Amino acid sequence: MIDKPGPFPRIMHWNFRGQSVFTLMLLLTLSACRQSVVPLPAPTLPRVVPSAPSSTTAPVTEPQPTVINLAQVPYALAWVSDIEPLAVRQPAGITSMAVASLASDQRGLTITGKTTLMGSSTWVEINLPEGGKGWIRDWNLTEDVPSSTFCEDIRIADLANQFIVAIRERDGGKLSELVSPKRGLIIRHDWWNPEVNLAYSSVPGFFLDPTPINWGVNRDSELEIDGTIREVILPQLEDVFSIAPELNCNKLGAGSTARDAMWPSDYSNLNYISFYRAAPDPGSQLNWRTWALGIEYLEGQPYLTLLIQYRGEI
Questions:
Q1: Is residue 273 very low, low, confident or very high in pLDDT (cuts 50, 70, 90)?
Q2: Element (H, E) at 154
Q3: SS3 of 30, please?
Q4: Rounded to whole angstroms, how far apart are CA atoms 104 and 268?
Q5: Is the pLDDT of residue 27 over 80?
Q6: Domain with CATH 2.30.30.40 in the chain
């Protein structure tokens, strides 16, 4: 067991598990120096909204904000290997006794509301599925949102639109507004390459940071991939988002490749959207690229957590 720390229309087809749910229209405006995206009105989607109070029952004074009992929010595991389960400790702490273990796909967990800080890690007490209680790191918990609920959340379409704007305009401030304050932004140059974790405070400098980073290796050549975000990641993002890619929900668009494109098992409980840029012609079937965006909810609000690239490999 382990513990893990002139304008023209663009049409994006949103697919949920292969079925069309809605079509997102993006209107692009060309300026002298750059492209920008102007979103059309949000599509009407099936969703649950609270009933508005009638004129006879509406409060005279301004209503107070609802206090959400986070102890009742269901949680799922994240950043847990499918090879080794996650140890649940009692009491909190990496050296404490393991009283249970949870598989990487565990969902429907609830928390007691108790937390404690151990070094730089926050530990959370959870209710165990079989009864009893134990402690795990907050890093390994994510709000449990069903796939169907996620794909019908119109805020995800807006997040996708705003992400495209941030990339095209190279606007780190706008990008930081979309990113999870809990985790920052985690990037994988390829789905099988290691994570590069950017602290939340570093995201505003995403497009200008001069720090060289090791992104892993090229599978074809086994050469190290080194360089700044601007040198390595940004050109590959712009390769997809400078055109009208196919937008999918919880489904990876992919072209020909020697190995299947896979959503990493460590994130099996996370929802995601993917942007697929197909190969431009039949003679270059490997010249496709996809960027997947892992989305987490934090107190009910969706945030960008992951950026994972997929591309054709020999």
A1: very high
A2: helix 154-169
A3: strand
A4: 7
A5: no
A6: 74-143
How far apart are the C-alpha atoms of 218 and 224, rounded to whole Å? Answer: 6
**Token duo for residue 5:** 């720390």
pLDDT, one tens digit per residue, over 129-142 is 999 999 999 999 99
The token duo for 63 is 């209503």
Report residue 156 as tokens. Answer: 């995800």
Class of domain 74-143: mainly beta
Query: How large is the angle between the packed helices 154-169 and 234-241, nearest 10 degrees?
Result: 120
Joined together, the tokens standing for residue 66 give: 């609802």
Residue keyed to tokens 């959340």: 153
What distances in angstroms separate CA 99 from CA 1, 115, 181, one per listed residue?
11, 18, 31
pLDDT, residue 154, reads: 94
CB 307 within 8 A of CB 185: yes
Handedness of CA 233, 234, 238, 241 (dihedral sign): positive
Q: Given strand 35-39, what is the order of strands in its sheet?
A: 35-39, 19-30, 8-16, 246-249, 271-277, 289-298, 301-311, 185-188, 196-198
pLDDT in tens, 55-69: 333 343 443 433 345
Highest average pLDDT, of 13-22, 56-65, 198-207, comes from 198-207
Residue 103 near residue 6 (C-beta atoms within 8 A): no
Q: What single letter denotes the amino acid at residue 57?
A: T
Phi, psi of 72 (to 5 degrees): -100, -5
CA angle 272, 276, 282 (to 5 degrees): 155
Split at pLDDT 50, 70, 90, the class of 219 is confident
d(CA 257, CA 287): 10
**Which ranges in 43-135 belong to alpha helices (H)?**
none
Q: Beta strands 301-311 and 185-188: pairing type?
A: parallel
Which of 114, 103, 113 lies closest to 73 in space, CA to CA?
113
